[in-house]
Structure formats: structure tokens, C-alpha cells
């Protein structure tokens, strides 16, 4: 066992990369749940975004086009969920689970012929002078644009929910959709827009896995990260900054266990592989002990005839 091979600077930099996909997807789901909708189809939308982004990036040679296509693919799949739950008034839990199964099957179909192909590389945002700083430069200023997009998304979501009028309306719909409807707010329209945003973010998270984190296409490559994103939202008490903390914890343990495997630590690989999921959930359960409650209308069907 050689722990000296683990570079702490590289470890922290890799942590930020490993956390980005789950963080972006979780922030999208946070907005959906704040609107009073429970969408369990995050995994399906992520894997659909992963293949849509990968295929378009390979065909066009542009990672940017791939990320745009991934967001569009995730949002398009989320519209199926929106139709079922907001117009057909189907059960949200069953619809979300069906969406995940549909997304996994659709991505397997679309991904035929893309195995073994390398996508165009996503360039790093190297900032002159700052990127060359010892330690800090590699950790903070040596990443691709999507890492910074994820951080900006967390800050923007926090400000949107706390200060923006539209954010307050969204929260009102999530707390009491009947009261919001009585005040003249278009509950279904707001929820459909929230669902579309959540789908787009899940798609971006999936594309980040297939284009940056593991630059290749493999069937089922999201490997449960969509479910971790769902758990992050609940255990983070629907607060954006806690989602960031939980995502970084998950990314950190993921990277650390890979480094420990490479260092030859005498722990079975299976235990190391499951450790990111176990540690993240345990810590987030402890964090959620402040008794913050879910949005009151979460998962409840809104009847527009009220």
C-alpha cells in the first residue's frame, strides 16, 4: 500500500469534477420539488442527456452543441412526465419511476453504435496567471466551464428562491397550490416550467458524465447518480448550499476511494465502491436533523377545477 502516491491537490481538483454532475442534476430537482412536484425520473433524464449530448458532440465535433442537446433531451423527456402528472393527473411516484425505466431503455437504443467512440474534448478554462498559481491555481482555476456553471447555478438558485418574485411564487405554489391558484397564479404552467428546468439540468448532468467525467458512452453509465441527486435534495432540506456541500462530499469520497484502490489498500473493492453512497447518505441524514420540512404540496395532485 503506497498512500504517498495520492496527490492532495489533484484529489481536491478531481473532487470538484466528480461532484459537478450530481450537483447540477440535484439543483434541477430542487426547483421541481420546491414547486410541489416529486419527479423520481432524474436517473432516466440523466442517462438520456448523456447519450443525446454524446451523440451530438460526436456528430458535430462540438462539446457545446452536445451540452445544449443534452439539456434539450432531458427537458423533452421531462415533458412526458409533465403531461402525465399535470394534465393526465397520474400518480407522480409511478410516473417518475416509469420515466427512469423509459430513459434507461431509450438511451440503450440510441446509444447503439456509439460504444468505443471518443467524444471531442471539453476545453479547460485556463485563466492566465491565476491558473499557474501553486496549489490554488490547479484546484480553483484549472477546470472546464461546466464546473463553474455548477457553482454559479447553486448561487443563482439560492438568490432566485430567496429574493426573486418568481422564486417566491414558485415556493408559494409548492407550499399551497390551492391558495396560489386563488391568488391568480397559473399553478400548472409554473410546475411545467419547473419540471422542464429540472429535466434540462438532469440532461446537463448526464452529459457531463459522458463528455467530461468518463469521456465515452457506456449503457447505464450514470450508475445511480440520479438517485443520489434525489437523496441530496431531501437530505439537504431543499436548500441549495447544502446540496453543494452534499455533492462535494459525494464527489470527494468517490475520488478518494478510487485513489485508495489504486494505492492498494487492504479493503475489498466492493466496500470501497459502495462507500460514497453510504457516507453521503449518513452525513446528509445527520445534516437534515434541523427538522426542515418538505414543501407542503409536494407530490399532491392539483385539480385546476378548484
Automatic annotation (TrEMBL):
Keywords: Cell membrane, Membrane, Transmembrane, Transmembrane helix. InterPro entries: ABC_transp_permease. It is a multi-pass membrane protein. One of its GO terms (molecular function) is transmembrane transporter activity. GO terms for cellular component: plasma membrane. It comes from the Bacteria. Pfam families: BPD_transp_2. It is found in: Cell membrane. The chain crosses the membrane at residues 6-28, 40-58, 64-84, 96-115, 135-161, 192-211, 217-236, 243-265, 271-289. PANTHER family: ABC TRANSPORTER PERMEASE PROTEIN (PTHR43370:SF2), SUGAR ABC TRANSPORTER INTEGRAL MEMBRANE PROTEIN-RELATED (PTHR43370). This is Nucleoside ABC transporter membrane protein.
Amino acid at each position: 500500500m503506497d498512500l504517498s502516491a495520492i496527490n492532495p491537490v489533484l484529489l481536491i481538483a478531481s473532487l470538484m469534477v466528480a461532484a459537478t454532475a450530481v450537483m447540477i442534476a440535484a439543483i434541477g430537482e430542487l426547483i421541481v420539488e420546491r414547486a410541489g412536484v416529486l419527479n423520481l425520473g432524474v436517473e432516466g433524464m440523466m442517462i438520456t442527456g448523456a447519450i443525446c449530448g454524446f451523440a451530438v458532440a460526436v456528430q458535430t465535433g462540438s462539446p457545446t452543441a452536445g451540452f445544449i442537446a443534452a439539456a434539450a433531451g432531458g427537458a423533452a423527456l421531462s415533458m412526458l412526465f409533465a403531461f402525465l402528472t399535470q394534465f393526465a393527473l397520474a400518480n407522480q411516484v409511478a410516473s417518475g419511476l416509469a420515466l427512469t425505466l423509459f430513459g434507461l431503455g431509450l438511451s440503450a437504443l440510441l446509444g447503439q453504435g456509439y460504444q468505443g467512440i471518443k467524444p471531442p474534448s471539453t476545453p479547460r478554462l485556463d485563466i492566465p496567471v491565476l491558473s499557474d498559481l501553486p496549489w490554488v491555481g490547479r484546484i480553483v482555476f484549472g477546470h472546464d466551464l461546466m464546473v463553474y456553471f455548477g457553482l454559479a447555478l447553486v448561487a443563482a438558485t439560492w438568490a432566485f428562491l430567496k429574493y426573486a418574485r418568481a422564486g417566491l411564487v414558485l415556493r408559494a405554489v409548492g407550499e399551497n397550490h390551492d391558495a396560489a391558484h386563488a391568488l391568480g397564479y397559473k399553478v400548472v404552467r409554473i410546475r411545467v416550467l419547473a419540471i422542464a428546468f429540472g429535466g434540462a439540468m438532469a440532461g446537463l448532468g448526464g452529459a457531463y458524465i459522458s463528455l467530461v467525467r468518463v469521456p465515452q458512452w457506456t449503457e447505464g453509465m450514470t450508475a445511480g447518480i440520479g438517485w443520489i441527486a434525489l437523496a441530496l435534495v431531501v437530505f439537504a432540506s431543499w436548500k441549495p448550499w447544502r446540496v453543494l456541500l452534499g455533492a462535494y462530499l459525494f464527489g470527494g469520497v468517490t475520488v478518494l476511494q478510487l485513489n485508495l484502490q489504486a494505492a492498494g489498500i487492504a479493503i475489498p473493492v466492493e466496500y470501497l465502491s459502495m462507500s460514497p453512497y453510504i457516507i453521503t447518505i449518513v452525513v446528509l441524514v445527520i445534516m437534515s436533523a434541523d427538522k426542515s420540512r418538505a414543501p407542503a404540496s409536494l407530490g399532491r395532485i392539483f385539480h385546476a377545477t378548484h
